[in-house]
Design a protein that fits this description.
Elements lengths: L3 H4 L3 H12 L9 E5 L10 H4 L4 E6 L13 E4 L11 E7 L8 H12 E12 L5 H10 L5 H4 L11 H7 L4 E13 L4 H7 L4 H6 L2 H18 L7 E13 L3
């Protein structure tokens, strides 16, 4: 289950890639814009400022995340894999969703071929930090003797590609693919644990009893605290992200 309050703890750091992604979309007056994996919808409605005349909608599979959506767009509880517009749309945005979908490469090609209008834009962003300590330490912990029976099958190894892979995947269209490593400075105690607890740790915590959750979080917090020590000004937290903006031929 997604926790909107916990996810929003570092809202500014999570929002920055969204705006940098959308800023590279060249659409001027799209009729229809959809945000797939829109979360709470707070970023979705920002698209109305960019395209005030567009029919704007958001899709997310979590009822919890969509429980308090702001006005300014239409929202639907739906898995992005099941989304199918009545007619092709002009802009598809997907921010930090596709890493959760193993078959997302096939999904991307379907969106481009079937669900995007001629001349339309597809823009997506995914985390690219699966080989950083924040993920490696959690994988190692899940595969340790104390946890492998309960959590070993939840380990994921780099479910996303690099910019070059997505460039090849969408070859033949106009593609802008790049990566950025942000140097976040997180405030608060156990900052990195708080960050990953809202996202990467969700599958693990969802499987454990409350007592085992507390044990797991204590161990994970210790490991992450050693890897990302808190400084007087906060906790430095490098975070790599992959961006792709593609335009379909007219």
């Amino acid at each position: 289950m997604w926790n909107p309050s916990l996810y929003g703890r570092y809202a500014d750091e999570r929002a920055r890639p969204f705006f940098e992604l959308v800023g590279r979309i060249g659409a001027e007056n799209p009729r229809t814009v959809v945000d797939l994996g829109c979360g709470t919808g707070e970023l979705t409605v920002q698209l109305a400022q960019r395209w005030p005349d567009a029919d704007l909608s958001g899709v997310d599979s979590s009822p919890e995340m969509l429980s308090k959506t702001p006005p300014g767009a239409r929202f639907d509880v739906l898995d992005a894999r099941a989304w199918k517009p009545a007619e092709p749309v002009d802009v598809i945005v997907s921010n930090a969703l596709l890493q959760w979908i193993p078959e997302h490469r096939e999904l991307i090609t379907r969106w481009m071929a079937e669900d995007l209008a001629p001349g339309g834009w597809l823009a997506f962003q995914v985390p690219g930090n699966f080989d950083f300590p924040s993920h490696v330490l959690i994988r190692d912990l899940c595969q340790s003797a104390a946890w492998r029976d309960e959590l070993g099958d939840l380990v994921r190894h780099a479910p996303v590609g690099d910019p070059g892979e997505y460039l090849d995947l969408l070859g033949g269209t106009e593609v802008d693919a790049w990566e950025t490593t942000y140097q976040h400075v997180l405030q608060g105690e156990d900052a990195v644990l708080t960050w990953v607890r809202a996202t990467a740790l969700r599958p693990m915590l969802g499987r454990l009893t409350p007592d085992r959750q507390a044990q797991f979080l204590a161990e994970a917090g210790r490991l992450l605290g050693e890897a990302y020590p808190r400084r007087p000004y906060g906790t430095p937290f490098p975070f790599r992200r992959i961006f792709v903006v593609a335009r379909k031929e007219s």
